[in-house]
Each structure stands twice: as structure tokens, then as C-alpha cells.
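Hello everyone,

My group is preparing for a crystallization screen and wants a predicted model to guide construct design. The compound we'll soak is zinc ion. Before spending weeks at the bench, it would help to have a computed complex in hand. I've included the protein sequence and the ligand's SMILES below. Output in C-alpha cell form would be ideal because that's what our pipeline reads.
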Amino acid sequence: MLRKFLLSLSLLSVSAVFAEPVKVMTSFSILGDITRQIGGDKVEVAEIVKPNQDMHIYRITPQDAKRLKNSQLILLNGKGFESNEFVKAAKAANVPVVLASDKIQSIQHDDNDEHHHEHEHEHEHKHEDKHAHHHHGGDDPHVWQDPVLMKQYTQNIADALIQIDPANKDYYSGSLKKYQQKLDDLDALAKKSFAAIPVEKRKVLTSHDSFAYFGARYQIKFLAPQGVSEESEPSAKQMAEIIRTVKRENIRAVFVENISNPKLLNRLTKEAGVSVTGKLYSDALPENGGYVDMMKHNIETLSGAMK
Ligand SMILES: [Zn+2]
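Reply:
Good plan to model first. Here are the C-alpha cells for the complex, ready for your pipeline.
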């Protein structure tokens, strides 16, 4: 009698645990999307920093700390992408915290790159506030820009889901495999798209300091001279430096989304002979579309612009 009671009690608790999808909190939109793709209807995924929002300026709020606490699993990118404050709040939630970039070899930030040596005093402080994870040296966190490295990243996500919900192991393993096929397809698309462009023409000027992994994988040189930043328009002097760089390096692909002043854009076209079009996605998804769409967009936009 007692045995029967205990048995039904344990069955009850098993179904109580697994009838509901696992509540997973992720730090940003790219990680959120990928976790949804792998977890399907077995998980309920939310993200702290939404599509089109900027992790660099995000500050953790009491509501978000509470959302972290109410989850069953927290996924972070790691490698310094999330602020110390963010990591602290995640640890305080008392649920498992997993770093999706675990076991991925880091590229180190080059702290002496070209856009640091001029005007250092004027800009250093501003940069450190907003782009903390870009300018402190150490590990570069933007591993998601390399679809090949994302095979380990997605493996880490699937492992974390299996750990917390072993009953659905086969489901997670199956969707991981399907997703990794998409990563292979992305890599093949990138290789094919860039193969037609000679290595000496694979140069891009951009305001995002986020493409080191992408550049390393596909032999593309990303330059960000002083004045090309995500927060403000360049001064006339900085514009001259941008034009000098474009001419010196013979760059065709220029992405300067921070410049909206038509006069400055005209100058760039007239003096450097480049037309400025398109947008690259670096640290957040667009409003519509997931990680795979974002990468396809970047690959197509970049290969089109470098031709
Ligand atoms: Zn970034």
C-alpha cells in the first residue's frame, strides 16, 4: 500500500516537472534564437537584451534580476560579453549558469590597433563606458560571427538542455544535428561567396569592432579608423582620416552606419570613390529573422560590397 502510494507520488512529480517546458533565460537575442531552435517546444526561452538592442549599454534592472531568478537555466555568451554586474546577477539566481562559448579558443583583442593611437585622450573614456567588452583587451567575445565555431557553441547549449532535462535528450540531440547542418551550409555559402574575391580585395571599413572571428575564418581584413564608431558622427578631421584609409587600403566595402550627414557621405563618395550602402549586423539580431538569416545577410552584403 505504502509502496503503491510512493510510486504514484514519484510519477506525479516526474510529470509535474516535465509537463511544462524548461524555462531558459538567455542574455541576448542571438543566443536566445539558437536556444529556441535547439529546444523547440521543450523549452520556453526569453532573452534579457532584445533584438536591435545593445548589450554594450545594457544595465541590469531589478526586474531582469527577478526574471533570472524565475528561470531554471541561464545561458550566457561568456568571454566578457556580459558585464560583471550581469554575471553576478546570473550567479545570484541560484540556477545553473552555462557559458555558450565554453571550450572555444578565443581571439585576443588587439589593444594597439589603428584607431587607438590618435585622439586617445578625447575618446578613451567614452569608449570604455559604452564598448567595455570591445576595448579592454583580453578575450574577444564575438564568437558567433564564425559559423564553424558555432558548432561547439550549439553543442554547449544542447548539453546544458540535456543536463537539465535528460528525458528529452533524443529530441535535443536531433535538433542540434539539424541546426549544425545549417551552420555547415552557412560556412559553405561564405566560402563560395568570398572565393571569387581575391584576398587583397577582402577589406572592409566598418564601425563595428566585432568581426575578428569572421575575418579570421574567411581571410577578410576589417578596419575601423578613428572617427568610425557606433556612437557619433566623425569630425571633419576624422573624416579625412577615414578617406585616407579607404584610399590607402583601396577599400570598396565601407559600412559607416553612424554617418547620416549627407555632406559627409558625399565627401566619401567624391574623394574616396566609394558608395556607402547596406548594414552589417554584429551583436544583436534584426527585428525579423534569426541567426542564420543574419549571417546570410552579412555574407551577401559583404561579398557584394567587396567586388
Ligand atoms: Zn560587441
